[in-house]
Each structure stands twice: as structure tokens, then as C-alpha cells.
Amino acid sequence: MRTLTPEQRCNLEEHAYHIRRLSVEMITFGRWGHIGGSFSAAELLAVLYFDQLRLKPEEPHWEGRDRFVMSKAHASPALYAALALRGFFPVEEVYTYCELGGRLEGHTDMTRTPGLEASGGPLGQGLSICVGMALGFALKENSHNRVVCMLGDGECNEGQVWEAAMSAAHYRLDNLIAIVDYNKVMAKGFVRDLMAVEPLGAKWAAFGWDVMEIDGHDISEIADALHQARYVLPRGKPICIIAHTVKGRGVAECEFNYKWHTHAPEPTTADRFLRELARNYGFPEKGYSRLEEDLEKETFYGGGVMIMSDDGTTPP
Amino acid sequence: MQLGEIAGLKPAKPMRDVFGDALLELATNNPRVVVLDGDLGNSTKAEHVRHAFPERFFNIGIAESNLTGIGAGLAACGFIPFIVSFSSFLLCNAYDQIRLSIAMSNVNAKVVGSHGGITLGKDGPTQMGIEDLALVGGMPTFVMLAPSDPASMHAAVNAAAAHVGPVFLRSSRIAMPHIYPVDACPFEIGRANVVREGDDVTIIGCGMMVAAGLDAAALLATEGIEARVLDFHTLRPMDVDAIAAAARDTGAIVCAEEHLLQGGMGSNIARVVAQTHPVPMRFVGLDDVYVESADPWDLLRKYHLTAEDIAAAARAAVKAKKAGRA
After folding, report:
1. Which of A19, B79, B90, B264 sits between 20 and 30 A of B287, alpha carbons compared?
2. Residues of A in contact with B100 (CB under 8 A)
3. B62-103: pLDDT as tens digits
4. Contact indicator for B74, A135 with CB cutoff of 8 Å
């Protein structure tokens, strides 16, 4: 059992708040990105990067580190925010997101960004890579590294996820933890309407995994689940944490709203979102830090006109 | 008629057996080498390693996408994974995984495509890798090797392991005769080997087409045409200097490959020739066609991949050179 002190909880909640803030700032300034799937993963990333993962940001290739792979790599803004806040690169660098010559790609690129353990984009691939890492650690003597993979719920449509799940159980990889960010919404609507994944927990269990279901926005539940996955549960089975979350959690307009899957807000909208975030999470109200600069920024986007689809969003 | 017989080359055992031996030798010498098999270890002969080092051999089952990803993960932990299956299954089934998890991530993983080309024969066109070189060609970080005889297979396996980064290695079901002395194959990634000297035309081949090219050169010699033969064992990075030298020195080039002409070795060589020293070129390979189940030699004859076909292409190239045509 991992019981957080009120102070630790507060601290992690503040990190989650800043992960959301920075996600909005970089998506707005970069004119591209996925808000919904970044918001749903904010608490999960906060607990991983500030409580559970063993890392040395000053020594990113430290042998003893845990490996975290964001298989749902479109949530790169939230991941970059967590990496920056944890000290892998300067927080200011988030404003180079998707910029020519920058180190923060639209989807994750391990060859460019410090702290990334794998590249992602095409969905379904991260868990296989993690199975390979977990197998590698199992081959080494006295390794205590844990491998953690975050998947999307829509990503569980991909066949490769289940190939990987089958093989992880076959090799009894109890050093491997999969977290499903079950935010219920994919790019064009609700998962249950587009390609139902239920019964999701039963599927993972049937593939030979120990399964936990938690509230993926509850800091204490997340910390306890990850603690159990590391110290209590390992018994010859890989561990799946199904984290029930809300796509777009934090800003009312974005919650469970597929239109905010891929969509960069206008600078003034971002300002409104950030003020709402501050109010919702009990922090002093603060708007978009680059509002003036951004409003004056010249953007070339398909000849100067943003191309919108009929539902008002910009398709990827 | 055996491959290499006209040129007097000494027969050897099937390339897949040579590959299995070479992989075992490598695994014996390097404890970081691990082998990932897609339940075809008995066909690819990767299972030679399973017998000796079961703890470093993983049969991932019939799941090429997962096979590839697991290899990438093992590479991330400092191992040198050899991901081995049929060329067609790896490249066609797991292309996106090879592209993202290995090529774009630039990880130190080796992909071995066995049963490249059409000479797996009776298994049929669904199992044949006739587009593998074109597909690997679409992934910029990959080194691409297609050895031509037992010594070059051993050298290629060692070179693949020594190179830090993604490598594709083509293996084959059939036997390719000895071109090099058993322990003396000069093999440097990106440097083609001249295996026969000649001034009238250059035959550039990879894999089995090097021996076929030497057979063709022997046929041509009886007619007074002296052909240079290049073993183009590295398809990327290409030996641009060797191609330009062949064009300058011999004035006519024939490219021969057990692969589709579309997107294969020859088309890449033609790009270099066009930009360095344009000369008449002819191409031997599969021309926009899926073949059928049959004995390998019947297939090679029907689809014009024999020494006689290379010789005919060389005569045409020499004729064009003399006439000042393309």
C-alpha cells in the first residue's frame, strides 16, 4: 500500500496541473497537437514522473532507470511537459514544439528528445517494444528495472497490442506494466460506438495479465496501483492497470469531446482554457503566457487560411 | 545445370544453412547477440542458435509485428537482436513496425529476410520476397546486404553485427557456389567486389546473380566479350565509385537481381550511372510480375533470370555501345 502524505498529494496534483498548462501552451504556440489525450493522461504522468519511475534526468541513459514508453504518442505534449518539468530539458523548450530544427516532434522521436525511450506515432507498437525491454531485463542478472507502457483505449483496436499481450504473458514478464488510458473517446467519437473494446479488463485477464481498474485522475489510486504493480503483484504475470479517465479532463468544453482530439486552440481560446484550468484546479487565475506574442505571430498554414472540416476542427 | 557450373565454381551447401552456421558462430563469440524467430527457425536455420544457446533464442510465434517490436526493445537494452523470418513476411507484414521501431528509431537491430527472391520455388509467390529490397530501400537508415556465397554470408553476418544501427540481410533457400576462398572474402559495407575483370561490359549482381553473372561471363568469353563482374553485396550505402568506374572503364552495364526490376538494385544503379557516366544499360530481373509455384530452375528459366539471359543482355548492351545508342 502506498499512502501519500497530503503534501505529496498536493505536490503531484500541482504537477498534473502544470502538465495540462504546458500542453495547452505548446499546442497553441505550435499550432498543432492533441489536447484531449494529453489532458486525460496528466495525473498518470505526474505520478509516474514525480513519484514512481526511477530516473536520473541528469544521466538520461543511466542503466538502472525504469523505462516508460508512451505508445499513444499523440499525447506527446503531456509527455514533453512531464519530461521538461522533471528536468530532462528546459521548460522553455516546449515552445519549440513542432518547430523546424527543434527537438520536440509532433509524435515522439527518441533520436531527438532527451528522456524518450522509444519513438511512437503509428499506434499499437509500444507494448511490443516494452515486451522486448522487459525480456531484456529478465535476461540480465540482478536487474530491478521496471518497464511501463501507456496505451490508448482506441489503440487497443490494433492487433499488435494483443500479439504483445500474448507474448508478455507467455514469457511471464512481471517486470512489465501496461497502463490503458481509458478515456472513452477516439478521434471521431466514443470508443463504444466506433469499435467497442469492452469487456476490456476481461480481455487483458484472458490474455494472462493481472488486471487492476482505477480512477485515472485520482492521484492516490494511481500511486497505490503502481506501487502494488512494482512490489506486491509481481507473481509471474505482467500487470495491466486500466485507468478510467476523461478525454479532455480539465476544461469543460474539451471533456469527452472528440472535436478536441486533434485541434490547436486559437490564442484567445487558449487563454480562456488556461484560466478555466486554474479555477478548476484551485490555482491563481493565469492566462496564456504568450498571448500577445502569439496574436502577432505570422503563420503560414495552407496559404494563410486555416483549413477547417465541417465540424470546425482541423484534421491531422 | 548447376549455378556456377559454367564458370567452374565449386558447389556449396544451401545459403540458409550457411546463414545458420554463421549466426551460431557469431552468437558463440558475442554474448549480446539474441535471435528472434517467427516460428520458421527450421526453414531459416536460425534454429542452429536455439540448439546451442536456448536462453538467447526466442520463438515469438507467428506474429511478425510483435517480433519486430520485441527486437527493437531488446536492442534498447543493449542486446544485438537478429530478427529472422521469411523476407516477405517481415517486410510485408511488419513494414510499419520495421519503419518506426527500427528504422526511424535508428536502433541497433538486424533484420534477416530469408527466402529472398523466387528460388524458394514450390512454396509459391505468396511466400516469395520479390519486393524486399525495394521495401527496405524506402527506409533511409538501413544498411542493406545481399551476400553471394558462403564466405560472403559469414562476412556479412559479422559485418551486420559490427555495424551499429539497422541492417537488413538477405538470405536464401538455395545453394550458391563458392566465389571466394572460404576464409578470404574481402567484405566492407558499401564497397562492391570485382570478382572478374573485363573491359567490354560490366555485369553487376547481388546474391545468386553474382554466380549467374560469372557463368554469363564465361559464356561471353567464348565469343570474345570480356565482362567485368561486380559483387554488389551492399545495396545501401551504394558503392557509387565502383558503378562510375564500371561505366567509364567498360562503357556498358548489365544489372542482374533476383527481385522485381521496379525499385530494385538495378534502378538505383541506373540513377548513379545517369548522374556520373551515362552508358547503355540492360536489366535482368522480374519485370512487373508475380510468378508461380514451381521448381526453382524452371522458374528462373521461365522468367529469364539465367546466365543465358544475362549473357543475352550483355550482348545487347555491347551492341548498343558500339552503335552509340542507349
Report:
1. B90
2. 119-122, 125
3. 999 999 999 999 999 999 999 999 999 999 999 999 999 999
4. yes
Measured between alpha carbons, how far is B16 from B13 in angstroms, rounded to an integer? 8
Nearest CA in chain B to A162: B66
pLDDT digits 0-9 by tens, A249-303: 999 999 999 999 988 999 999 999 999 999 999 999 999 999 999 988 876 554 4
- State residue A1's pLDDT score: 82
- Given the residues B64, B131, B257, B258, the one annotated as active site: B64
3-state SS class at B264: coil
d(CA B219, CA B212): 11
Instruction: Give the residue among A79, A86, A94 at the shortest CA–CA distance from A50.
Output: A86
Q: Within 10 Å of residue A202's Cβ, how many Cβ atoms?
A: 10
Place of cell 460506438: A193
pTM, two decimal places = 0.95
Domains of chain B and any CATH numbers: 15-170 (3.40.50.970), 193-323 (3.40.50.920)
Continuous H helices in B30-112: 41-44, 47-52, 64-76, 87-88, 95-97
Does the active-site annotation cover B64?
Answer: yes
Collapsing DSSP states into helix, strand and coil, what is residue B83? strand
Min CA distance, A159 vs chain B (Å)?
Answer: 9
ipTM, two decimals, is: 0.94
Closest CA to A104 of A92, A117, A94, A89: A94
